[in-house]
């Protein structure tokens, strides 16, 4: 997966997605220094009504982020544009995410956001306005490697996309921000849901999906506690549910399965039991190859910054499946699996169904 800036003429026009943070700001500064015709763009995502408090106050900080993005453009003496994609965010990211949660799955909104917004409609609008490229502040290697969220890209996407800080370390990006005297040089990295900021996911989901408490079961079929609602739990989780019946030698309990029909979660505190109930083979959907694998033997991540797991591709009927060398704890359907050859991202898929 080669994500290095392209060799291009000095007049090439680049629209940089400015988040208001340091990574995208340095990306804009580097591109300008390389001779590109740079325009900074702040993209407004979707904001739920319940987060808009009295007097226009909000947990969502998009206005502050936009202001920081504007300050960066002023410091770099480049044009600033504001794209309001609130409607598109709601339809393409939020609605799809909520539908997956309602179906008992655990989607990744950052992957959806990248595919549908940053490398989708942002590029389309930029191209209509004369841009040759778009650029973002994503990292594709090193300590902050974000390739897990970029697996949906195609070679066509990469042909018009630049990642100026892609192979840098964060410390180097901070150093460059100070060198270019950017107003966000010391700004902390943002946290939270990609499109609404620092809001607890449980609180967010509670506004859109009706839930009801249910039973916590052990593997012997006994009711040993209660939970707040199925959508709040992922496989491998050990918090948020209450266990009222446990022995003096009991260890921490982990979710090993969810049952929508009975509105119950299955938990275990036995390492051997957890491994026995963990999947080894999973059916895939929405497979995308940035570069076709040269072998069926691969390594893969099933979560951001997770360990790389040895696995093998195979056909299950007409569909692709992945078989891991060992049972995988904490595998959640609906999440992305991303494939690597050495340190290069080859592509990915959505984990759709556990195969027995």
- Tell me the distance between the termini: 33 Å
Order of helices and strands: EHEHEHHEHEHHEEEEEHEEEEEE
* Corresponding CATH architecture of the largest domain: 3-Layer(aba) Sandwich
Uncertain segments: 1-5, 54-58
Q: What Rg, in angstroms, do the CA atoms define? A: 22 Å
Number of structural domains: 3
Q: Oligomer, anyone?
A: single chain
How helical, in percent, are the residues? 25-40%
What is the strand tally? 16
Give the neighbour order of strands across the main sheet.
Answer: 11-14-13-12-15-16
Provide a count of the helices: 8
The 3D shape can be described as globular
Amount of beta strand? 25-35%
- Give a quick account of the main beta sheet: strands, pairing sense, barrel closure: 6 strands, antiparallel, barrel
- The CATH homology group name of the largest domain: HUPs
Report the CATH C-level class of the largest domain.
Answer: Alpha Beta
Quickly give the structural class.
alpha/beta
Written overview of the protein:
By secondary structure, the chain is α/β, with parallel strands linked by helices. The chain folds into three domains: about 15-200, HUPs (Rossmann fold), CATH 3.40.50.620; about 210-275, SH3 type barrels (Roll), CATH 2.30.30; about 280-355, Beta Barrel (Elongation Factor Tu (Ef-tu), domain 3). Helix content is about 25%, strand content about 25%. The chain contains eight helices and 16 strands. It has helices at about 20-35, 60-75, 85-100, 110-130, 155-160, 170-180, 200-205, 270-275; strands at about 15, 35-45, 80-85, 135, 160, 215, 225, 240-245, 255-260, 265-270, 280-290, 295-300, 310-315, 320-325, 335-340, 345-355. It has a six-stranded antiparallel β-barrel with strand order 11-14-13-12-15-16. Strands 3-2-1-4-5 form a five-stranded parallel beta sheet, with helices on both faces. It has a five-stranded mixed beta sheet with strand order 8-7-6-10-9. α1 (about 20-35) packs parallel to α2. It starts with 12 loop residues before the first strand and ends with a strand. Residues about 1-5 and about 55-60 have low confidence and may be disordered.
């Amino acid at each position: 997966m080669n994500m290095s800036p392209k060799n291009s003429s000095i007049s090439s026009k680049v629209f940089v997605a400015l988040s208001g943070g340091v990574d995208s700001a340095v990306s804009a500064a580097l591109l300008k220094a390389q001779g590109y015709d740079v325009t900074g763009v702040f993209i407004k995502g979707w904001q739920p009504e319940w987060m808009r408090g009295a007097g226009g106050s909000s947990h969502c900080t998009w206005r502050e982020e936009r202001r920081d993005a504007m300050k960066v453009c002023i410091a770099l003496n480049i044009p600033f544009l504001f794209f309001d994609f609130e409607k598109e965010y709601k339809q393409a990211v939020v609605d799809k995410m909520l539908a997956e949660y309602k179906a008992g799955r655990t989607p990744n909104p950052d992957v959806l956001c990248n595919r549908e917004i940053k490398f989708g409609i942002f590029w389309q609008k930029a191209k209509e306005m004369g841009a040759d490229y778009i650029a973002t502040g994503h990292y594709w290697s090193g300590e902050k490697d974000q390739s897990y969220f970029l697996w949906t890209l195609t070679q066509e996407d990469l042909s018009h996309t630049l990642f100026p800080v892609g192979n840098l370390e964060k410390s180097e990006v901070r150093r460059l921000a100070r060198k270019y005297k950017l107003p966000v040089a010391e700004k902390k990295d943002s946290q939270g849901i990609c499109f609404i900021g620092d809001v607890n996911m449980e609180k967010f989901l509670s506004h859109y999906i009706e839930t009801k408490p249910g039973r916590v079961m052990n593997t012997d079929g006994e009711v040993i506690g209660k939970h707040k609602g199925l959508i709040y739990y992922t496989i491998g989780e050990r918090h948020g549910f209450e266990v009222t019946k446990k022995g003096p030698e009991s260890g921490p309990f982990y979710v090993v399965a969810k049952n929508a029909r009975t509105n119950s979660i299955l938990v275990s505190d036995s390492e051997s039991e957890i491994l026995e109930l963990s999947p080894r083979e999973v059916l895939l959907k929405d497979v995308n190859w940035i570069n076709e694998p040269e072998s069926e033997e691969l390594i893969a991540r099933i979560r951001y910054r997770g360990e790389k797991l040895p696995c093998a591709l195979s056909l299950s009927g007409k569909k692709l499946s992945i078989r891991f060398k060992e049972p995988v704890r904490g595998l959640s359907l609906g999440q992305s699996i991303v494939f690597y050859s050495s340190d290069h991202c080859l592509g990915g898929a959505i984990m759709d169904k556990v195969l027995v």
